[in-house]
Structures are given as structure tokens and as C-alpha cells.
Amino acid sequence: MDNLTLWVWLSEKCAPDTPYFSILYHTFGSVERIYAANQEELEGVFGLKSAQIKALCDKNTAKAEAVIRKCRMENIGIIPYNDDLFPSRLRVIKNPPVLLYYKGRLPIFEKEVCIGTVGTRTPSSYGCRCAYEIAFDLALSGAYVISGMASGIDSICHTAALDAGGKTVAVLGCGINVIYPKENTELYNRLANYGTIISEYPPDFSATRYTFPQRNRIISGLSLGTLIVEAQLKSGAMITAKIAIEQNRDLFAIPGRLGEYNSIGPNSLLQMGAKAVSSAYDILNEYEFLYPDKIHLKTNNGSKKNNPYKNTIEIIKKTERPKNTVLPVPEDTETPQKQAVEEEKPNFDHLPEQQKNICVILSKTTPKSLEEIAGETNISVSDIMSSLTILEIQGIVIAVPGGSFVLA
């Protein structure tokens, strides 16, 4: 019997992210011996449950053969656990997949700098800009961007990598030929043609509430490090972060704006020791010396102008006035109050140059967006974000509704 048929048969018997495959493979040593094992032999394997033993005693391979035929018709590749092309990084994780289905160009993962990039499905304009910029520069510099093709941050990171002409891999929480969500049809086709799509689920397998957490171990497992962009405290992205830590992978996070719901996740990770990221360089600098032939640090300032999220500004309603601000004093009145305001103008000479330049153009009354600050200072958006986070922590700057900033 064809060896591949046995692997597909075995994948049907061992549910994803369960220990049964590891138990069986370490006990019997090959898929042929697992298939040949009788009930008595299986009952002697510690850790197998009766339902699992019953399933393994069913030697019918018709369903597996049908899956293989469908994969051949739809140009879907299959990589079993024992194949040389199976990612060695996945062999060492807890509960590795029995096999992987794939479409597109399959990389040799262990020879590549793979960075997982995950985040919320409902990002802010700040999160969208950060995700696109950093994923673009990661791909531009030679790294593989690994994500899950979900709405929001995942999709933005895949799109940015493709726009950069770089490499990206989508790990699906459904069958390899199932497009989920449907609005990602165009992205799916781009990934199939110019990137890579991977799944441990067979063709036509529908997504469930369990499959997305299950696939997260593969995203982090393929990656040297995982970047969390924006995430709520209880979210799939934070599950991925937890798994990455368990897999002894590096963890990165973009500092979030204080007081915002999607910032709680990454900010909590930073408190736990994740590395703060303000640009792709902060990530790639960790791996450049290990992969000098793969990583060539590049930043394309012109590409930032093409960031589709750069000019996405959340408008402050005219009726809203930021908290902790003072009303402007009319310019034509020389009152003691005005003189006091002028005398109390803060001095920023003690701050680093970038932080000082940002503070100089900010006021207590007129909020400025990231784009406006960048236009007046010629500092990159990623560096501005990093400086503003520090200034917020120090109580010098306040984030106000609409994604803008004023002096405290």
C-alpha cells in the first residue's frame, strides 16, 4: 500500500493538537507499523484511550485515497511527518501535525528567517499602519512573514509582504482549499500564486471555534520569533504568544497606546519581558548574524508612502475636547492669565533629541496625529510611536480620542 495513503489515514485518526500521534510514532517508529498494529498491541500503548484504539483498528483507507485524489486534482501538495521537506521546527513542538497540506512555493523553513505576525481582527488605524510597515520591511529584507490569513492584522501582514515582493506563508484553520473569511478570496489567490498556504486539515474541512487555536501552534512553531501587533487580553493572538513562549521562541510586541483595549495584550507582554518593536530592524537585528545570507536589512522610505493605512485618521468630533487640556487665551488680551501660561511653557532640553522635537511641536490645546507629527519633524512613524509611548509613560504627552496627541 502507498506510504502516503497510510499517512493520510493516520491523520484522520489523530485529531490536531493532541498527543496521540506522538505517542504512536514514538512507540512503533513508523506509519507502517502503526497501521499494522492490532488491538492487543494498541491496548498495550500507554496513553491511548479506548475510542482512539477503536479508530485505529479500522484499517479502511478509502477516505484517505479519496483525499489524495482530490489533492492531485487541485494541485495540493502533501508533506508527511517523515518527509525530508517537513519543517524540522515543527518536529520539536508539542503535538506536531501528522502531515501538512500546502499550495504555492514550499520553503525549506529551517534555512529561512520566519517571523510570525499576529493580532486582532479589529485593529485601530494605528495597528494597521504598524502592521503594514513592519511586515513590508520584514519581507523586503528577506524574512518570511508567517500569519493566519484571518481578518485584520493577519491579512494586512500578508498583503504587505506580497506588496514588497517578499515571501509570506498563511497557516489556515480550515481545509487547504477553503477560503475563510470569504472577503480574503483575492488575498488567498495571491498567496497561492506568489506565497505559500499551509494547513493540517484536509480539503473541504470547515473552520470551527477550535481549529484556529489549534493552528496557532504551527504559526509560532514555524517561526523563530512571533510579533504581536494589537490584541485584547483574551484573544487568539495572545494564545499564540503563550504557545510561542512554551515553544521557547522569541516574542516581540509593538507598544500600544495607553488606555486602548487592543493595547492591553501587547503592553502586558512587554511587562513580562517581550522585546519592544518600533521597526522591522528591531526584530531582524536578532537574527542577522545567524542568517547573513538571508537577511539584508533594507528600508524603503518610498514604500511608506504606499502604505494604504498611512492616511487613515480617526477624526475627533468637533464637540469633543480632550481631557486635561486648557482653553486657549485670546491673543489680543494681555491678561495675567496669559502671561502665566507663557511663563509655564515647559522646557524639553532634558529629553533625547527625537522626543524633544516631538514635544516642541505639540501643544496642550491642538491635538496632532501621527501623520502630522511625522510631517513636521521628518521622523519616521515607527520612531514617533516608540517616542510617544515613552513620553506617555513619563506623563509628558497624552493620547486623546481619535488617535492624536497633546502635551499633558
Account of the protein in words:
The protein has 408 residues and is an alpha/beta fold. It has three domains: 3-75, Orthogonal Bundle (DNA polymerase, domain 1); 109-305, 3-Layer(aba) Sandwich (Rossmann fold), CATH 3.40.50; 336-407, Arc Repressor Mutant, subunit A. Helices cover 42% and strands 12% of the residues. It has helices spanning 3-13, 20-28, 31-36, 39-43, 50-56, 62-73, 88-91, 125-140, 153-163, 185-194, 211-222, 236-246, 264-271, 280-284, 301-305, 336-343, 353-361, 370-377, 381-393; strands spanning 77-80, 99-104, 114-118, 144-147, 167-171, 196-199, 225-228, 250-253, 275-276, 368-369, 397-400, 404-407. Strands 1-2-6-5-4-3-7-8-9 form a nine-stranded mixed sheet, with helices on both faces. Strands 10-12-11 form a three-stranded antiparallel sheet. Helix 1 (3-13) packs across helix 6, helix 9 crosses helix 10 (185-194) and helix 11 (211-222) packs across helix 12. Mean pLDDT is 87; it is low at 301-305 and 313-344.
Descriptive terms for the model:
single chain; 408 residues; alpha/beta; DNA polymerase, domain 1; Rossmann fold; Arc Repressor Mutant, subunit A; 9-stranded mixed beta sheet; 3-stranded antiparallel beta sheet
Under the CATH scheme, which class of the largest domain?
Alpha Beta
What best-fitting shape do the alpha-carbon axes yield?
A: elongated
Helix content: 40-55%
**CATH-level-2 architecture of the largest domain:** 3-Layer(aba) Sandwich
Going by helix content, strand content and strand pairing, the class is alpha/beta
Assembly state here? single chain
Q: How many beta-strand segments?
A: 12
- Stretches where pLDDT falls below 50 for ≥5 residues? 301-305, 313-344
Q: Please indicate the count of domains.
A: 3
Strand sequence of the main sheet, in spatial order? Answer: 1-2-6-5-4-3-7-8-9
* C-alpha end-to-end distance: 73 Å
The radius of gyration over CA amounts to 26 Å
Look up the CATH topology of the largest domain: Rossmann fold
Main beta-sheet annotation: 9 strands, mixed
